[in-house]
Amino acid sequence: MVDIRESIRAWIQENRQEGIKLLKRFVQEASTQGNEKHAQAIVVEKLRQIGLKIDIWEPTMRELRKQEAFVTTRESFEDSPNVVGVLKGRGGGRSLILNGHIDVVPEGDLAQWSEAPYSAVVRDGKLYGRGATDMKGGNVALLLAIQAIQELNISLKGDVIFQSVIEEESGGAGTLACIVRGYKADGAIIPEPTNMKIFPKQQGSMWFRLTINGRSAHGGTRYEGVSAIEKAMNVVTHVLDLEKKRNERINDPLYQHIPIPIPINLGSIKGGSWPSSVPDEVIIEGRMGVAPGEQMSHAKQELQTWIGTLKEKDQWFEQYPVQVEWFGAHWLPSELDVEHELVQTLTKSFQEVKKNDPVIEASPWGTDGGMLTNIGHIPTIVFGPGVTEMAHFPNEYIELNTLFEAAEIIALMMLDWCGVSE
Amino acid sequence: MVDIRESIRAWIQENRQEGIKLLKRFVQEASTQGNEKHAQAIVVEKLRQIGLKIDIWEPTMRELRKQEAFVTTRESFEDSPNVVGVLKGRGGGRSLILNGHIDVVPEGDLAQWSEAPYSAVVRDGKLYGRGATDMKGGNVALLLAIQAIQELNISLKGDVIFQSVIEEESGGAGTLACIVRGYKADGAIIPEPTNMKIFPKQQGSMWFRLTINGRSAHGGTRYEGVSAIEKAMNVVTHVLDLEKKRNERINDPLYQHIPIPIPINLGSIKGGSWPSSVPDEVIIEGRMGVAPGEQMSHAKQELQTWIGTLKEKDQWFEQYPVQVEWFGAHWLPSELDVEHELVQTLTKSFQEVKKNDPVIEASPWGTDGGMLTNIGHIPTIVFGPGVTEMAHFPNEYIELNTLFEAAEIIALMMLDWCGVSE
């Protein structure tokens, strides 16, 4: 067994340049929502090269709408394929899903980027660009791990199912479609950017929209109106108070080093249409974190009730209550016991490669792990090489060394989890 | 002379239904910026009926760009004509411009309107709809006054120049174009909605844009970013402090009953693009009031300096200062001595019709009076029948009785100002 493990290490060292080249190509494709197909074409090309059985399909609304967990901001997934590659085992071993999303969030304010967001520049051992860390770097680690197994002619007992999915950033419809299509396994790894921490638990989250009313007036007699912008300021403060209250309740030791375990993020604001008019409506959209083990419905109710208490602070809201809607995406929270054998197996490979113990924490964000665990009933760990703090940031980057370490750790755990056929 | 004055009163009484019908037609044309031509066609039809010499033209950028006072949010005025009708006097009298704008502000949140905004419903002596008060009702008062003079075969000595202008709501390019085209007079009346108050002074105003920066991050680790929405809240509070400071300085007795003589209105806010990302930019657009007699440049400098002091309240703004831009519209402030003969003449007609003294105040908003006074050097009063508080409001309306009173007052003051040829 030592020889196989050593040869995996050597193979990954020898194929660093190929890995970097692959990640560059991925990052150079701006695979924001609806624009995933060019990046998926590169996945397909790579899976053909490795020699996996390939499944490419566009999820359909008809099928997904039957699922209670389904959420989307889209009308259709036309032109946005999922891609799955299967490495069939010899039988008698445990199967493993390796899942990564291909979609990236928009690049935001270009002025804050030192380089163009899709240039994929490499400097000082880091590769820069939108998606480098979240999570195309993780995907490359998976592909290298599988390729190493294949090129070294290692025969696994259990199946390995690689999934390159759309829609993680807006609620997990891509991974849900994989479950609906019948992909199951005894365990799953998602290499989201965890700074190489092991996350057996993940925060869930969901999107909300707050509509705040004012009363319009000419700006020159603005005292005759009520500014929805000023009222929105009260709402922002009130929501931040709820965030504080909810986080004071979190005592899971896995969250002890995280400043805000379940954040409420106010992501966008929009209101008013004319500089000389008092704005009569402001809409705020945001994301509410849900604790592992918390019911989504409980969290929803808590926000709605809290927003209802605004009227105690400001009578305006008695007459014009803020409307709360839930829309678009949600990510289910997820919990795996830290004693589960999947955690043990991954920990062992981690120790073997890194020569120290992994940090085991709870994730500050939802991932497709919620779908795999809650809907697919597949024990799932989130563990990957990306830099957590750079996800969704300008100048997003990944440290290339950790990418190759992750590839090695995952390849080794595949041997142990799936078993090797002599 | 008593006979002429009495017959004007009688004529207006007899033509109330025609006036209401005309106002309905005007309100039913949604003459927002760029969509003025159908309402202007009704003006032209009416001027032909009255028998005035008509001038219709689309202002050109080439000509207006030479004017320092010119501001616009548009690329072109194609399809947005100005209309002027001239009632030539017999000579030897003072000329008078009667100026009204045909453009209306957008209707805002439809849910706040009881009736469709352009339905022009009449109920309990009020006509409802966007533009009813600001200022199509005033325009109808002008047209009725002129028509009364014409149909009663009264020959005025001085010229009367009726102007139906575009672009008042975005900075006065229409009235500026009239001045550039050569229209001059010894005095001017603008029947903006003043609640029948006489405004010899008007507040100026100008539009600004504030760009507030944050730093993006994933919403699940939002503590790694800086929310531009939260930073924008500090900016809103800071701007409201400046408004307070500037208004404490105003001691003109004409402003004594106005809660905020020169408001700073924050009209729109927009920032962030994704519920699960920390927003890295918020843009606020607003309108700054300028006191009669205050230099526009002084007011600009004061806002810019004030915004610069944000860094004393929050170090973030040291590194990421809020950017201030001036864009789109401005309206020059305007001052006419309350002893000016135009004020006296209008006051006399007012007393004759209303049997009491007019309220003489300073306006809380800019009008095209700034252009007429500062650029055309034409003494100008703003006086009209609309309801100040309903301008730019949902459920905007005008009280029809005051419309006919204003028509009578203006017709009578035309006799006195222009002189009657026997």
TrEMBL record, chains A, B:
Its cofactor is Zn(2+); Co(2+). The keyword Zinc applies. GO terms for molecular function: acetylornithine deacetylase activity. Keywords: Cobalt, Hydrolase, Metal-binding, Zinc. It is an enzyme of class 3 (hydrolase). Belongs to the peptidase M20A family. This is Acetylornithine deacetylase.
